[in-house]
Predict the structure.
Amino acid sequence: MGNSDQALIRAVLAGNKDAYGDLAARHGESMFRVAFRITESESDAEEIVQEALLRGYRSLAEFDARADFRTWIYRIAINCALQVLNKRKSEATMPITEEYDDGSPSIQLVDGGAGPERLLLDREIEHRRHAAMEKMTPDERLAFVLRHLEGRSIAEIAAALEVTPNNAKQAVFRAVQKMRRSLAPLWVKS
């Protein structure tokens, strides 16, 4: 843990509540990126960061000072993100009782830079990527996001998943395999 994180934690525990704001500012943006990549929703990611920071603040007295604060607060954010995904899945199985349409016309903007073929391919890639992410277990999805979108090390992924480094590698491998299988039909052979 960086000395500055450790000093801020000591200050918070000594009664300086503003010091936690410094911790939040230091780690909030990267927590948002991870939450967004897991949930694919900006509003959900914002709520996840707020919830994770609140939980972290409430549990700071229980934090083990030998651990890395960033890994600890990331794990809280990841748990919050996984709860949002689980909630979505349970809501998706519930029947829809009502739809809302305010009657206002929607506006579509044309991208002058991309042709229709490229736009279609982009949509298909996005659809297949999303489908592959849905097929991943929560641990695989998290491992994939942390490794390939956040550039985290296997040790950091293992800490976030609370598994051994070998199990973290396996989760990344399985996630990559699922993504490759989903995107394989789109690969152009030369």
Remarks:
- Residues 97-101, 107-111 have pLDDT under 50 and may be disordered.
- Residues 69-92 form the longest helix (24 residues).
- The chain has two domains: 3-91, 118-184.
- Helices lie at 3-13, 18-39, 42-59, 69-92, 116-135, 138-149, 154-161, 165-183.
